[in-house]
Automatic annotation (TrEMBL):
Ranges for domain Multidrug resistance protein MdtA-like barrel-sandwich hybrid: 79-273
Protein name, per record: Auxiliary transport protein, membrane fusion protein (MFP) family protein
Organism ancestry: Bacteria, Pseudomonadati, Pseudomonadota, Betaproteobacteria, Neisseriales
Chain spans, region Disordered: 1-31
One record GO biological process: transmembrane transport
Keywords annotated in UniProt: Coiled coil, Membrane, Transmembrane, Transmembrane helix
Domain CusB-like beta-barrel, chain residue ranges per copy: 278-320
Coiled coil: 146-210
Source organism of the structure: Kingella oralis ATCC 51147
Matching Gene3D superfamilies: 2.40.30.170, 2.40.50.100, Helix hairpin bin (1.10.287.470)
InterPro entries linked to this entry: Beta-barrel_RND_2, MdtA-like_BSH, MFP
Residues passing through the membrane, by range: 37-57
Amino acid sequence: MSQPNTPEHPDTESQKTAVPQPETPEPAQWQPEKHRFGSIGILAASAIGVVLALYAFRLPPFGMGEVYTNNAYVRGSVTTVSPRVGGYVQKVLVRDFDNVKAGQPLVEIDPAPYRAKVAQAEAGLAGQQAALNKTAQDKASALAVSKANQAAIDNARAQLDRARREWQRIQAVSTDAVSQSSRDAAQTAVKQAEAGLKQAQEQYAVAQQNIINTGVGREGAQAGIANAQALLDLAKQDLGHTTIYAPASGKLGEVSVKQGQLVSAGTQLMSVVPPERWVIANIKETDMANVKIGQSASVSIDALGGKAFSGKVAEISPATASEFSLIKADSGTGNFVKIAQRIAVKIVFDAGQQDLERLAPGMSAEVNIATK
């Protein structure tokens, strides 16, 4: 029995050749364009730069109600220690940066030459006192001589009176009653008495002049004593100045003087810095309109990492800094350029703040003054 002719693989014919179909791409995920990020970054950086510039220059809205300057420095009373007399340094009693109190000995200069000057001045004073005592003795002697001369005048005047009476008596009698020799003798006696009186008067005048001279000599001796006393006082002062004392309490700077060094009057030996501190802020004149005494201020110190201290405006300079300079700008020339001047403002610190003792004169500072 014959079987039907069945194909060996019945599905083979039904399969058709597959035509490749194009792949459909998946939808791409949205991404922002790269240049947009760059634009946003530039805008952000610009905005930050503007904000920083406004803050740095204290422009509105940051600078409203306050005045700022970084031209400010800590100040203090730096006192230079110098000798008033010269000589060799015998002792240096302090070291660099020591704390000292007012009146504390710092340096000793060899006092021997100044002790000798004191002794010399004392001898000069003693000599003037001896001269004054001599004038007193001279005056007493002149008074005694004057008294004797006065007595001599009285005696000479009495002798003259007797001689004149005798001469008048002889003239009253006749020439026959008295011899010529008696007449001549009487006349001679009158002349001698007159001469004796004149001599006594002259001696008396000399004695009176001697009295006057002793008075003048006494005044000169008294002036000499005053001068000698002044020289002695100066010598003692110079001797006292051989020890140099601290003019104020504070802290020393570097001690530049050494033992055995020859110093002269005015030589800078060291400096004393008292503990008082303040700040001088040099503010532009265009910012001074609202600055007044008593306003609060904040002071940031560069040397202390920007640590801020509170204070108040204490004083305002009566003139700009240029007015105190030795060489002033000549604004009368044709090359004039207007420049904002600066005015010094003194700021004192509020008491009781921590680290105030760390402030040193010369430190740089930044100052903000609250004007509203």
